[in-house]
TrEMBL record:
Domain of life, source organism: Bacteria
Annotated transmembrane regions: none
Lineage of producing organism: Bacteria, Pseudomonadati, Pseudomonadota, Magnetococcia, Magnetococcales
Organism of provenance: Magnetococcus marinus (strain ATCC BAA-1437 / JCM 17883 / MC-1)
Record's keyword terms, sorted: Signal
Signal peptide range in chain numbering: 1-21
Gene Ontology molecular function, alphabetical: electron transfer activity; heme binding
Keyword field contains 4Fe-4S: no
Name of the featured protein: Cytochrome c domain-containing protein
Length: 99
């Protein structure tokens, strides 16, 4: 019985860690990306990600675009933060298989 309880608690800990990372990617995105994208699309920032002619075709190309924007805008994100934002965008809009 103690083993089952321990395993349940351990799984909850893993899931909460994944949720925290997912939330961090969204926070970084919302703080650094939304204003620019919304200004380009009449307040509809999500159009940056959903319009057919701009949609990326792989997780790798999406990550390259996030890294490009990071450099252009000067957010100063580290690779881990670029990954968190990429994961957020992928989960929310793109649904590419992650390598």
């Amino acid at each position: 019985m103690k083993v089952k309880i321990f395993m349940a608690v351990a799984m909850l800990g893993l899931l909460s860690g994944q949720t925290a990372a997912a939330d961090e990617g969204k926070v970084l995105h919302d703080e650094s990306c939304i204003a620019c994208h919304a200004s380009r699309f009449n307040g509809q920032a999500e159009q940056m990600y959903t319009r057919a002619e701009r949609k990326k075709n792989s997780y790798a190309s999406l990550k390259q675009m996030v890294a490009f924007c990071n450099n252009q805008v000067g957010t100063g994100w580290f690779d881990e933060e670029v990954g968190l934002v990429t994961d957020h965008l992928n989960r929310t809009y793109y649904k590419f298989p992650k390598p």
